[in-house]
Design goal:
Distance between the termini of chain A: 35 Å
Radius of gyration of chain A: 13 Å
Radius of gyration of chain B: 13 Å
Distance between the termini of chain B: 37 Å
Oligomer: heterodimer
Order of helices and strands of chain B: EEEEEEEEE
Largest sheet of chain A: 7 strands, mixed
Number of strands of chain B: 9
Number of strands of chain A: 11
Number of helices of chain B: 0
Shape of chain B: globular
Helix content of chain A: under 10%
Largest sheet of chain B: 5 strands, mixed
């Protein structure tokens, strides 16, 4: 089945620790995105990549880093510089069409211990 | 992107039509209205979009006013599985697919 997978579903981080969230898609989409969602809030864009080896900051990129070495993969690292990382993280991908082509993964819930 | 305003919550009886409004008074001529929904603890799901004509698909209908300053998403026969947060987003079709989600409307379908 085609789709987007995110792992793990739940992730625990200790203070001062970097953690990496995985996102993989087999939809052959060029563009991929990372969003953050806080409880009761909408989604905010962290980073996006429209092509391999290229990515741009979104609205809340501070404390996060990404890489796009392969078309299928867009991992997000939450660094120790992110002071309030507890949130629900959603990965998405889209084709060259409009926003209606954007598909979301199931999300990773990150909790800081 | 044009700003959108949605009521924070709505209730609907199961089997009845759910009408979810969205105001987007600053929409520009080349911007589309998109609707997504997010069931609890899942990723958002695309529902429908339109420019100025009314649109219908297997999930819903979208009614856009003639002046395009507001729209209504209609779920014709709401079921319990339609309980979700519904987001109205205004975006240019060729402006990139980065989406900005506001607070949305939390629709509760009740038996």
């Amino acid at each position: 089945d085609g789709g987007i997978t995110q792992s793990p579903k739940y992730l625990f981080r200790k203070e001062g620790q970097n953690v990496t969230l995985s996102c993989e898609q087999n939809l052959n989409h060029d563009a991929m995105y990372w969003y953050r969602q806080d409880p009761g809030q909408g989604l905010r864009l962290i980073y996006y990549s429209q092509i391999v080896n290229d990515f741009q900051k979104g609205d809340i990129a501070e404390g996060y880093s990404v890489s796009r070495e392969k078309k299928e993969s867009f991992p997000l690292t939450v660094t120790s510089a992110q002071k309030n990382p507890t949130a629900f993280y959603l990965c998405a991908s889209s084709s060259s069409g409009g926003p209606e082509t954007q598909y979301f993964g199931p999300g990773t819930r990150l909790l800081v211990l | 992107d044009a700003k959108t305003t949605q009521p924070p919550s709505m209730d609907c009886a199961e089997g009845r039509a759910a009408n979810l409004p969205c105001n987007h008074s600053t929409i520009s001529g080349n911007e589309y209205v998109y609707w997504y929904r997010q069931i609890h603890s899942q990723g958002p799901q695309y529902i429908i979009h339109g420019l100025k004509n009314n649109e219908t698909n297997e999930m819903a209908s979208l009614i856009i006013t003639e002046d395009r300053k507001s729209s209504t998403l209609i779920l014709p026969h709401a079921t319990l599985r339609d309980t979700a947060v519904y987001y109205c987003i205004v975006r240019g079709h060729n402006a990139g697919n980065m989406l900005t989600f506001g607070g949305g409307t939390r629709l509760m379908v009740k038996p």
